[in-house]
Amino acid sequence: MKPETLSFYELAVQRAVERVLVSLDEALDLERLARAAALSPFHFHRIFRGMVGETPLELQRRLRLERAAHFLLEGDAPVTAIAMDAGYDTHEAFTRAFRNRYQHSPTEFRQQGWRAAAGRKRAFQIEIAARSGIHFQPQSTAVAVQFIKGEPIVNVELKTMPELRVACVRHIGAYHRISEAFGRLGELAGRAGLIHGKPTMLAIYHDDPESTPEPELASDAGIVVPETAIIPAGLTEQRLIAGRYACTLHVGPYETLGDAWARFMGQWLPRSGERLGPGASYEIYLNNPMEAPKEQLRTELYISLL
Hints:
Elements: H1 3-22, H2 30-36, H3 41-52, H4 56-74, H5 79-85, H6 91-102, H7 106-117, E1 156-161, E2 164-172, H8 179-191, E3 201-205, E4 218-224, E5 236-240, E6 243-251, H9 257-272, E7 282-285, E8 298-304
Antiparallel strand pairs: 1-6, 2-4, 2-5, 3-4, 3-7, 6-8, 7-8
Helix pairs in contact: 1-4, 1-9, 2-3, 3-9, 4-5, 4-7, 5-6
């Protein structure tokens, strides 16, 4: 592993964490964070989550709640004002989120603090458990991030991949519903005679779910086709560039692919000595739910390398 490569990713994430800490009262500009890290929003999100254990938005929401807990114990501001400062539009929404984290309503939490101050009960702690060790500090925004190490992904293979010509159906909306696009792809590709033997089916995800509203997320359900194939109406053509790629195999339900991507890009990549390349990341499906139970689904994850 090249130390400067690990330092590059650690420094990028450290700076992003510091930006979150000093801007708790601002709407988080995820694209700006990604640009500062010299990464695409899509890749930045996966690397940050893999190294910190939370997405930037999840980190900001947790720190806002920890700050709200501090204000409840240390001040006398109305709960409604504290809720607004924490980014909640209503007292009810804040109370639900607060109770979910602290098992008490904000008012109960504050009353416990008063009883503790009078020496009749132990006070609650404001820190919410987090693997990164990042917590709200009333007097400081300095923090040493405990980057998640975890169990390394060992089944990573470096491959030189050819250019892939892919016939696609574009899906707009929640990524977990891309199966609808695959259904349409099967109909159109089958009718055009593009499905032979065991076709290579893959998905390309274009947007970062953190910074793009769910109804606007763009992805492609695709099938690799030869250069001589005529792509029919209803399908679009995508080109996945040739070059060096890292590939890991995920075995298990599609619902856990997000965690696999986070470990791949947030843990393996920073330790590998490699840097992201210009190509798109994609998934190749070696089987499907009609052929195997969820626990035996096999999906290859590919990231482009320099």
